[in-house]
Amino acid sequence: NGHLTFDAPWSSFTPQRFPIHGSRDIIAPFWTDLDNRQNGQISYNQYTSGSVLRQATQDINQYFPGLNFNADWVFVATWYQVAYFSASGAVTQAVLISGGQYSFVMTNYGEIAFTQQSVQAGYDTVQSTHHFSIPGSFSQNATGEFSNFRLSSNVHVPGRWAFRTDRGSRGPLYPTSGTVSSAVDDGSSPQITLLRPFFYFGRTYNSIYVSHYCPSCADLWRPTFISADELRYNSLNNTEHSGKTYCS
């Protein structure tokens, strides 16, 4: 939920800290438990001409000077006001940009409602040969009014992070229009054929999946909450609660 994968769909709604040292490439603008059945929509679009390519060309040449870059393809995935599981949500984007031998990933952040859920943002590759965790991941500063994702940047544009991946509009958001991923899709969009190959740290991909809520996964795990009184009672009686989440 809130991530992109290339070889196959992946509906994991529990974020893992980067580096994972796993077997998949992943781009995670906002990996947490999201539920687009509650609110918001998830959309994606590809561009091979027009104003979005001009914007991408301008942005990349500003952030990575000296490349004389010219974008010929842009893929934009938007999670627009998508709810956290049983709560309000956030506005996030992943933007993939290619031109010639160069490829880039941008993550954009709009309003991000507060949640106590963990969030991982950044990217990770097979066996974590390349990885980056955006500051604020797995912290209390990930969401809310003072979200570090929304207020910080590595390219001097608050709410935007940009990375070159081929080797080792107004505000930060690109246009949010495009094919809407159905809320009834089980954990992921259908396979999306990319209009241009995307180079991701030594590998080339021709398709992508946009993740979201997974109904068939939802019943596999649910936290069990125990009151503070019960916790104190069980502690006094040495009662173990393996696999349960405690809260007051």
Automatic annotation (TrEMBL):
It comes from Oreochromis niloticus (Nile tilapia). This is NIDO domain-containing protein. Residues 29-168 form the NIDO domain. GO terms for biological process: cell-matrix adhesion. InterPro entries: Alpha-tectorin (IPR052749), NIDO_dom (IPR003886).
